[in-house]
Every structure is written in structure tokens, then in C-alpha cells.
Amino acid sequence: MLRSYIDHIAVTAPSLEAGEAYIRRTLGTSLETGSAHPRMGTHNRLLKLGEMRYLEVIAIDPAAPPPDRPRWFRLDAPDPARPARLAAWIARTNDIAAAAKASPFPLGGIEPMRRGSLNWLITLPADGGLPLQGVAPALIQWPEGIHPAAALPDSGCALVRLEGFHPEAGKVRRVLDAIGFEDDFRVFELEPGRPPYLVAHIRTPAGMRQLGGPDG
């Protein structure tokens, strides 16, 4: 039986420093050093949000050669109005091939990735885009018994709820049903023409904070 859950949320930024500044403003906390994604020419910083959940700030790595394909999460085509923003979320699945095939809307091809000693499979649209403008998830499958959140120190933060807003919310719900989603992600209908967005409700040591929204 297909099962999927929230794995992590992705904040895109013009640099890791800009992304960390955005997290400090919104959540009042700092990030842990991550590492590089050689195939994508990107690097990241991380924040533990639960036993098997985390936040990733991701940016183009200026020291890396450009990849031979578009970078993921639309990093090659940033939104100038929202330079650092909650752009995407990633759902962990127990069978990425079956889940990708079951989705009624394309989530991208299945690609092997690595970062340091970590290896995983992830769905990536060929053009570097975001499924349903980032409100539908990318899919990820980790090796059995491996998850990057296990190596992160406790941040005192936890993802309480994730929400998506989209003019065609029914399409997002059909994707979630098809991939066997069993977690707290709520989808709300937007008026036609309004740009989709995500909102993450995060408990921090200073109280509840909100990340994302129509302005980022």
C-alpha cells in the first residue's frame, strides 16, 4: 500500500546568507550547516522540525559548475518579488516509482541524488519547475533506516501544520489521494488568477511562527 508523509519544506533564496536572514526574521532561529548537491550545483542549510522532518534553505552554489540541466525548485528563474520564500515541500514515500506513476498530474522523472554521504531518489520536472506551482509535493524516497533529520540537533522547533493555497485545489487533493498521503497538509481554494503559495505553521522556542504566505 502506498504511504507518504511530509518530509521537508524548501526555502529558496539568492544565497544561503539571504535565506538564513529570512529564517531569522520569520522564525527567530539559526540554521545548521548543510552541504552541496553536485548534480544540481546547489547547497543548503538545515533546521530540524521533528523526528523525520526538517526545513531546508537552498541556493545556487557559486563555487560549483553549472549543471547540465535546469536546477531544481526554479532556482534558475527566481521570483524577483520574493527573493527568499517558502517555495516547495517534499513528501516522503515508501515506493517512489509507484507513487509517481499513480499521480494524476506529472511530478517529474525519478532522479538519484546525493549530498555528502546521503543518497536518495527524488522526482524532478525536466524544466526545474514545481508541481502545481509548489503546492503539490515533490516525492522523495530515502534508503531504509536513513533520514537526514536524525543527524540534526534538536532546534526546539517543530512543524505543526502545512497549508497550500491554489486556484485549482482539487488537483492538489487528487495528487495527495493518489500517493497515499497520511499527514497534516490542508489545501484551500484561491480565486482564479491569484498566485499559489504555501504556509508553514512552526512552533519555536519563542512561540508559534508562520513561514510563507502570499508574500513569501
Architecture overview:
This protein is mainly beta and 216 residues long. It is built from 3 helices and 12 strands, in the order βαββββαββββαβββ. The chain has helices at 16-27, 96-102, 169-178, and strands at 4-12, 32-37, 42-50, 53-60, 85-93, 109-115, 118-124, 138-141, 158-166, 185-189, 197-204, 207-212. The strands form 2 sheets. Strands 2-3-4-1-5-8-7-6 form an 8-stranded mixed sheet, covered by helices on one side. A hairpin with a 2-residue loop joins β6 and β7 (118-124). The chain is globular, with a radius of gyration of 16 Å. The mean pLDDT is 96.
Concise structural overview:
The chain is mainly β and 216 residues long.
Number of strands: 12
Shape: globular
Spell out the helices and strands N to C.
Answer: EHEEEEHEEEEHEEE
Give me the side-by-side strand order of the main sheet: 2-3-4-1-5-8-7-6
Q: Sheet bearing the most strands, described?
A: 8 strands, mixed
Task: Indicate the low-confidence ranges by residue numbers.
Answer: none
Mean pLDDT: 96
Instruction: Quote the distance from N terminus to C terminus.
Output: 35 Å
Count of discrete alpha- or pi-helical segments spanning 4 or more residues: 3
Radius of gyration: 16 Å
Portion in beta strands: 35-45%
Helix content: 10-25%
Structural class: mainly beta
